[in-house]
Amino acid sequence: MRLRPYRRHDDDARLLELSQLQADQGAPWGLSRFDQGLFERKRLADELQREQGVNGNAVVVAIADTPDELAMLTTAPNSTSDPVSGPNDGGGAVSAASGMSRIIGFVYLAIRPDTSSGRPEGHISHVCVDRRFRHRGVGRSLLTEAKHWARQNGLFKLSFDVMAQDESAIAFGEALDFRIASVRMEIPCASVDA
């Protein structure tokens, strides 16, 4: 695996696919998993269209490039009932012999003002890893690169949001030296169907 910068337009379809499939992990706000996937895909598409390359924002992608990694891309994901794309419908099969590389994960990094001080902070708005490559160091590499990006940009902190019940994401962040800094309370005020 190697990391490289996002290539506008060339990478969009795969990033959108990974973002939508990431929603399989949970559907907050009472949305169905399918609707959550569409919501995440639309949100990322809007961010890529509006912000890429503006104000220092960045996207870093992880690329499968070893024969073993490319072979893994030809296998179906764990779930055969993916309502979005079906098994391995992410742009065709990749053979190890073809030498083609595929995106297996990405991190979207934005610079935004800190809510309390107004100072610029780094924020990870998306981090997605193809489920076939989870627990193989891809996410760790992406977040390590995110920390490096924040330091290069002179940002005083780097943050990401996580659902309170997502214990594995919290543990993952803590393993990379992130700490819980605040808790947001909310109450639904309208029906999703309204």
TrEMBL record:
GO MF term (any one): acyltransferase activity, transferring groups other than amino-acyl groups
Coiled-coil ranges (or none): none
Superkingdom assignment: Bacteria
PROSITE patterns: GNAT
Location of the N-acetyltransferase domain: 56-194
Protein name as annotated: N-acetyltransferase domain-containing protein
Lineage: Bacteria, Bacillati, Actinomycetota, Actinomycetes, Bifidobacteriales
